[in-house]
Amino acid sequence: MNKIQDLIEQIKRLEKELTIEVQRKEEEFFYKIEGKKIYFNDEIKKYHKTISTKLHTYLFNANLLNIITAPVIWSCLFPAVLLDIAASLYQAICFPVYGIPKVKRNEYVVIDRYALSYLNLIEKINCVYCGYFNGMIAYVQEIAARTEQYWCPIKHARKISVIHSRYNKFIEYGDSRDIYERIEKIRRDFNQSA
């Protein structure tokens, strides 16, 4: 195995370790997850409600620049929804033709912070927005990654700031040995151990 593959494997191990640590927080903060529902015990729910900032206090103490720039942030929602729809239609139409497994949107777009009793209405709405927007970007990135794996699975020569989930399968830049046979093999390798 080469150094890059070793690093990728190390990152995967650390991601699994991180997932386990996050799940341990369920016990620490007294909640449990059943399906898509999250439950806090009654005592914790009562406590959360006591620490919630009242809406009028929240608005009174808000930074004026935060209030003024809020419409700019929210103006991004419409193009985000269009991108979400376009990417979903694209994969619904094209992925079956290419033999690419579809990306499960609900594994990326997670909206659950609205259920936290210690957040007021504005904070909950903002959390829904951020959960949707960041999840949608991750969802679209995975669709793009699978598309790139199918059409052009060759690594870049220059450093890229984000390495997507499929990139470690790609052919090294400049390595032209049996290029078309290798590309054809990579096009079909969509197992989850990417």
Short précis:
With 194 residues, the chain is mainly alpha-helical.
Describe the structure.
With 194 residues, this protein is mainly α. The protein has one domain. It is 60% helix and 4% strand. The chain is built from seven helices and two strands. The chain has helices spanning 3-28, 42-51, 55-61, 64-75, 77-98, 121-151, 179-187, and strands at residues 31-34, 37-40. Strands 1-2 form a two-stranded antiparallel ribbon. It starts with a helix and ends in a 7-residue tail after the last helix. The mean pLDDT is 89.
Topology:
Layout lengths: L2 H26 L2 E4 L2 E4 L1 H10 L3 H7 L2 H12 L1 H22 L22 H31 L27 H9 L7
Antiparallel strand pairs: 1-2
Structural class: mainly alpha
The tally of helices reads: 7
End-to-end Cα distance: 15 Å
Strand order, sheet with most strands: 1-2
Query: In percent terms, what proportion of residues is strand?
Result: under 5%
List keywords for this structure.
194 residues; mainly alpha; 4% strand
